[in-house]
């Protein structure tokens, strides 16, 4: 759904890239707390939110309404994540109808739950052999997938829709589902089988409220059950009384009832005739997820996910809340001095996302005037430079760095030239001035006509020194700037490259501390924090590579481990990135940056090294 260009389907066919590979000014300024902007995602339609909290992030699993739909035309599921409830990262399509060879339609509302390090995604789909709606299970060891079919067949045959899983305090898991009825089954510990029969929950008016004017469906319950436990009370939040639906809820003393209807969570609002609840606690707050038709072209079949923060009443009841465009306040701020995915977005105009050859997703289909907003970026005392990972199959364009609005103060401009392909990635770096305090950041793209560039990730650097301190960090000038620390031989390699046409290969290492090195003595500032990024690939095995600084001052050498963490993997290459503060006493007489391994003497390739 690209409001500045053709619809996704035609755009994809014109570019034909990695989609085919996927199965699926220095005044310190302190802003008021940033808030989210509803809907949470603007470049695709999303529906039926299923939020999950895992390791300090919220993962939001959704369905995907196809552009221009006049029915529930849904072929894939999506996942987005956030650490601040404001800026959401698009992780793409970890599961689609093709995941289930026996299904042919209706990738509808599902739910993800984690158990024993595995993530289980329960989804309703249409079975090809008989046309019935059934429930399948996808499984993955990562919250972002990819997911595979856990069973090779449905978990539940001839089932109703909207499955939701819940694990009680005693370890017993349940799966709930249903429209027009409400069912549950007790799941076994493996989460892909069940014990006992399928049980239908009585839909009494005491339990689920009274519907008027429909004798065949006397209660308010419609679909989309969301069951959870809080302070000893079991809650069932559900879509009520179509159409259009509102969100109601019931409570019970146990996971299977008896249920008592408690009232309205969200009244009928928005331009979608359906709604779908999701409730979580995160960072000391409670959040209610839902969907509406608020985006351009939105409606009952082209929906978008939104979220509100709320507080339970003293008696544990859920307050009634309304849809807003502001959404909840930001939790914390965003750190611009570590690598951020370009598809981490608060709001966007014109862009789309696609699968990247470097792994994960990138922002693409960028045209003149498109932009991305990232909220609550904590620049602190000021940024000095900006580096982005970019590609262009044309002549490129520019990335304008603006604050507060798309036409706000310009703090830097990075030029992007053609790279020879939409997935031929390289780094571009530019100076930055005036980015201080906590501000909203806009990446505004400018250039000629047509598609300009793709962007995979970005980061800022601090301090008075700007730009990459490493000479020939992209290895395109052979071994220029690089020497051997210890033993072995450095050579320029053209057959195994991460980007461009060359990499660096270190062979004949006799100690783990041997590695490619550069002199940094005249480049370092004591007390400054530096960010290092590199890509490494082993000739054989998996070396535990780490960049290290050897600092000699007053005759004493100290070793600073820059301890980066792996952030991306692609085509056998691993990206490492991290930050470290360097300091010394007295006069610095020798400082070397070198790349070593924690153990072993494997030969390894090195490419795209940045230290700034």
Automatic annotation (TrEMBL):
Positions bearing the site annotation: Important for catalytic activity, responsible for pKa modulation of the active site Glu and correct orientation of both the proton donor and substrate: 162
Keywords on record: Carbohydrate metabolism, Glycosidase, Hydrolase, Polysaccharide degradation, Signal, Xylan degradation
Keyword presence, Hydrolase: yes
Ranges of residues in domain CBM6: 338-461
SMART domains: CBD_IV
UniProt keyword Protein transport present: no
Example GO molecular function: carbohydrate binding
Example GO biological process: xylan catabolic process
InterPro entries linked to this entry: CBM6 (IPR005084), Cellulose-bd_IV (IPR006584), CenC_carb-bd (IPR003305), Galactose-bd-like_sf (IPR008979), Glyco_hydro_43 (IPR006710), Glyco_hydro_beta-prop_sf (IPR023296), Glycosyl_Hydrlase_43_Enz (IPR052176)
Family: Belongs to the glycosyl hydrolase 43 family.
Official protein name in the record: Carbohydrate binding domain-containing protein
Species per Swiss-Prot/TrEMBL record: Micromonospora phaseoli
Upper taxonomic lineage: Bacteria, Bacillati, Actinomycetota, Actinomycetes, Micromonosporales
């Amino acid at each position: 759904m690209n409001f500045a260009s053709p619809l996704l389907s035609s755009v994809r066919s014109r570019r034909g890239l990695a989609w085919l590979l996927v199965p699926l000014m220095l005044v310190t300024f302190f802003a008021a707390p940033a808030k989210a902007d509803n809907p949470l995602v603007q470049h695709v339609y999303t529906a039926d939110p299923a939020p999950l909290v895992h390791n300090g992030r919220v993962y939001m699993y959704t369905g995907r309404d196809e552009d221009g739909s006049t029915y529930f035309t849904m072929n894939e599921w999506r996942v987005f994540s956030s650490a601040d409830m404001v800026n959401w990262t698009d992780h793409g399509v970890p599961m689609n109808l093709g995941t289930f060879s026996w299904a042919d339609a209706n990738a509808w509302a599902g739910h993800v739950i984690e158990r024993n390090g595995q993530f289980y995604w329960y989804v309703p789909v249409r079975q090809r052999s008989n046309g019935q709606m059934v429930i399948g299970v996808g499984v993955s060891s990562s919250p972002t997938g990819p997911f595979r079919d856990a069973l090779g067949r449905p978990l539940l045959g001839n089932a109703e829709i909207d499955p939701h899983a819940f694990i009680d305090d005693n370890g017993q898991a349940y799966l709930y589902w249903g429209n027009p009825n409400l069912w549950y089954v007790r799941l076994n510990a493996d989460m892909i089988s069940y014990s006992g029969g399928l049980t239908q929950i009585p839909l009494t008016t005491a339990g689920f409220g009274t519907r008027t004017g429909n004798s065949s469906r006397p209660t308010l319950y419609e679909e989309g059950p969301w069951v959870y436990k809080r302070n000893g009370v079991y809650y069932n939040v559900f879509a009520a009384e179509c159409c259009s639906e509102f969100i109601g809820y019931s409570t019970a003393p146990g996971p299977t009832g008896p249920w008592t209807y408690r009232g309205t969570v969200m009244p009928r609002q928005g331009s979608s005739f359906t709604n779908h609840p999701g409730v979580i606690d995160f960072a000391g707050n409670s959040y209610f997820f839902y969907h509406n038709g608020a985006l351009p072209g939105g409606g009952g079949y082209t929906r978008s996910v939104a979220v509100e923060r709320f507080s339970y009443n003293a008696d544990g009841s859920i307050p009634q809340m309304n849809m807003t465009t502001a959404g909840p306040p930001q939790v914390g701020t965003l750190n611009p001095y570590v690598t951020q995915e370009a598809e981490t977005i608060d709001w966007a105009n014109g862009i789309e996302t696609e699968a990247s050859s470097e792994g994960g997703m990138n922002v693409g289909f960028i045209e003149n005037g498109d932009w991305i907003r990232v909220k609550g970026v904590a620049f602190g005392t000021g940024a000095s430079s900006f580096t982005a990972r970019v590609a262009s199959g044309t002549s490129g364009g520019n990335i304008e760095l603006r604050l507060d609005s798309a036409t706000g103060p310009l703090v830097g401009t990075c030029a992007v030239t053609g790279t020879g392909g939409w997935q031929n990635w390289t780094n571009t770096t530019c100076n930055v001035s005036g980015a201080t305090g906590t501000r909203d950041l806009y990446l505004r793209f400018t250039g000629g006509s047509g598609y300009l560039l793709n962007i995979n990730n970005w980061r800022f650097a601090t301090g008075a020194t700007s730009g990459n301190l490493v000479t020939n960090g992209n290895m395109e000038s052979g071994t220029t700037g690089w020497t051997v620390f210890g033993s072995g031989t450095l050579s320029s390699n053209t057959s195994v490259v991460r980007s461009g046409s060359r990499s660096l290969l270190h062979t004949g290492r006799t100690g783990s501390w041997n590695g490619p090195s550069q002199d940094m003595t005249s480049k370092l500032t004591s007390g400054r924090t530096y960010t290092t990024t590199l890509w490494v690939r082993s000739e054989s095995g998996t070396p535990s590579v780490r960049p290290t600084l050897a600092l000699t001052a007053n005759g004493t050498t100290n070793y600073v481990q820059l301890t980066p963490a792996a952030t991306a993997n692609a085509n056998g290459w691993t990206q490492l990135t991290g930050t470290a503060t360097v300091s010394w006493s007295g006069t610095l007489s020798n400082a070397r940056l070198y790349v070593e391994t924690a153990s072993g003497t494997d030969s390894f390739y090195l490419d795209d090294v940045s230290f700034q």
